[in-house]
Amino acid sequence: MVEINLNRRQFLKLSGATAATLAVVELGFDTKKAHAATKEFKIAKSTVTPTICCFCGVGCGILVHTKDNTVVYTEGDPDNPINEGKLCSKGTTIRQLYTSEKRVKKPLYRAPGSNKWVEKDWEWMYETIAKRVKETRDKTFVATENGLTVNKTEAIASLGGAALDNEECYLLAKMMRGLGVTYLEHQARI
Amino acid sequence: MGANPAENHPISFRWLTKAKEKGGKIVSVDPRFTRTSSMADIYAPLRSGTDIPFMGGMIKHALDNNLYHKEYVAKYTNASFIVKDSFTFEDGLFSGYDESKRAYDKTKWAWETAEDGKPVKDETLQHPRSVFQLMKKHYSRYDVDTVSKVTGTPKEDLLKVYEAFCETGQVGKSGTIMYAMGTTQHTVGTQNVRAFAIIQMLLGNIGMPGGGINAMRGESNVQGSTDFALLYDTIPGYLTAPKAIPEHATLAAYNAKETPPTGYQSNKPKFVASLLKAWYGPNATAANEFGYQYLPKGNKNYSHINLFKAMYEGTLEGAFLFGTNPVVGGPNAGKEKESLSNLKWLVAVDLWETETSAFWQESAGSNPAKINTEVFFLPACSSYEKEGSISNSGRWMQYRWQAIKPLGESKPDIEIIHELATRIKGLYKNEAGPQAAPINALYWNYGEGHHPDIDLVCKEINGYDVNTGKQVAGFAALKDDGSTCSGNWIYSGFYPEEGKNRSKNRDNKDTGMSNYLNWAFSWPANRRIIYNRASADPSGKPWSKDKAVIWWDDLQAKWVGNDVPDFVPTKAPTDPTGTDPFIMNKDGVGLLYAPTLNDGPFPEHYEPFESPIPNAFSSQELNPAAVVIEGDFNKRGFKADYPIVATTYRVSEHWQSGTMTRNQEWLSELVPHMYIEMSEELAKEKGIKNKDEVIVTSARGEVKAYAMVTKRFKPHKINGKNVHQIGMPWHFGYKGIATGETANRLTPHIGDANTTIPEYKAFLCDVRRA
Predict the structure, then answer these.
(1) Less crowded by CB within 10 Å, the N or C end of chain A?
(2) Cβ distance B680 to B712 under 8 Å?
(3) Of B162, B184, B215, which residue sits at a domain end?
(4) So what's the ipTM on this one?
(5) What is the pTM of this model?
(6) pLDDT tens digits for B507-543?
(7) In terms of domains, do A14 and A92 share one?
(8) A187 with B299: Cβ contact below 8 A
(9) How many domains does chain B have?
(10) How far is CA A54 from CA A166, B387, B401, B502, B751, in A?
């Protein structure tokens, strides 16, 4: 976990109660006080973790506030020199990636000819997929071709990965090439 | 040009508006008057698919009016090289064309070399077969009147853009070109980018701060996923994937074929051996060519379009999808959906149920009883529910820490990949034989338990000495004798010693020229501006004090400055190769003339696969090196039935195939509907009013959506006649909160001659009221 020490001024800056608001309050105008207090309440005692936006390739910094096992707030990371705390509409709503009711929370299986998903456990999914990969691979594996060692299967494809982390991309490329996959492609092509 | 950063990369656009505040000018070239255009000093419309005429005209303008940076062009590019007389160009065809193969013999385009292998040069640039003179001749045909007739751009707008941009050829000024899919998604996509590179080299804008050509990456880590080679034709670090050809039969043969004798790429065998050591560990030895033979060797183009063609024809049995949704995002998406039912099994790893993973459902228009594909959906968690790094458009590798545990039973992709690899390896553990050997040899050692130790993965990517286990300081330390490993040499140096992962750096003090060298890590070697040797003149002094990046310090006898030199730090300007800034090219200079591409050494205009007019520049209609797939898989439309030019685009509120945004409440509310954008003139002709339901048809399919009638599209005046163009977002599908019909049901299955990227951005259609 990265350590971010938030002093009071930074905290206000982050929470949207900017220095300007602070000045107003200090001058004795307290119309904004209730608003500032609400803001403070929402993210008080939350844990702040820096991340990078998952959408376009600009690489904006975002701070994720978590509390009580949920994401309570997200905002632009003012320390990141790329966006200096600013975000677009997509970066702003990144909290809903966690809170959306549409997220799939369990592995799902669709049998041949079936019209519905069935929930399965991870263990069964991993074991079954590994078996399918092996069956297809063994049946279609080409060790040599025209006197050359080629060690490939042209019956398995892997698509996607532009939203994965570098470490994930690395292991995916290593696994797929390790299996002999030649149909290895992702969004950079399209 | 070919990008709309105000809407699609909004925070990058903030820096353009800052430059504007300081007197900079923004030029927007786009078929549609976008929000970027509305903030620009100059806007020029063009018909989709005519970028090469537009830029060819600019190249001619710069040359005719002596607006190019003469010393830069003479010293830092191949302008002075003498091309062999086997190079010719006639009526749209370069020499060496074989029509039956739709391919060129590129050896016809070679330049003359002296006995030592070095190019023969004429630095006065006067030789009639010098690259400079050939280029001048080639683009003499791109006069502003012809260009205007083809692009539809009014002549005065063309000249305004040419004059403004060519001003950046002056010392002390710089200009950048930001592009995105509007540039690349064409049958001439690679050559569109080449045209940008040519003008930027002519103006001396490469290697300069505020210069360059900048690809606006559409996905948060499409830079990294490309670096790590999730593509059929490369292995990590842009090394060529071995092919089933005699020249790649052994590691020695591969190295001989792929390694140029000069330039930094001459170190390639070290990077290949280190990659093999990372993949096969102790099973990679000098005796077995470091496991080279375990790698698959392909014999064809396995790119996206061909992958779906194989699926359509039933030769693919199984497929993995990692966060991708081709039923919405793929070209000719109706056919891609149809192809999926030929699979025996499909594994979809995603946060959401997508149009692709649910292709078999009734709501997808399918009959589930007739589809025998087994589908495994594995729920992945979001980016802040796990940890790891991503690389942005500027190659900055930034770390993302885990903010919260994965939702429900969802899991990080890295764990899913690790579990699958471990289990598949487990099934082969007790087997021998040719199919078991490569998998048993694969070195997979990332700790105990379900979750791999990401720190071990990072260390392997950076590389270490396999005998001592000590991290290597960078790619310069990699060896070809099997004593070092590195999973991706271009990233080597991001983790140079125990406990020091530089992608985690968060010191945001500006270290000069806004390079922020202590924020994150930028490959290669933390360099922020690629080819920055070119920011200094041949003697090693910055061309301009205001644009100083690096310079030669005589006293210290090394390059110093605001950035990490993209050059051997102690190589003096007086060294025989001390004035060769383009270190990744064999001859150390930029390629105005590139005899390596499939479709010619100079960008030449060809019309899109589907075009409303004949090619005004030659009798070659389509890029002669683009591969055309015939038949049902790729139906072609013609002007008589489909007279309107169409393109696709994106909006700020949605992202790619919409999976990540149409499943969120707020973004769905902001842009809830699919729409077709058209000009007032076209709407009037067709009797269409704003918000009417309309049907757009192409040779591949049809799409129903609301009409959005705007002043942002105007008919193009092409050769004196009106040609209409429409546009539409490609984010929609039938799943999620905001739903709509899928634009890509209309787009064709044809790709660029070099990359096979589909031509999404220029096709023909017709439109009518629903």
Answers:
(1) N
(2) no
(3) B215
(4) 0.98
(5) 0.95
(6) 999 999 999 999 999 999 999 999 999 999 999 999 9
(7) yes
(8) no
(9) 2
(10) 13, 12, 13, 20, 28
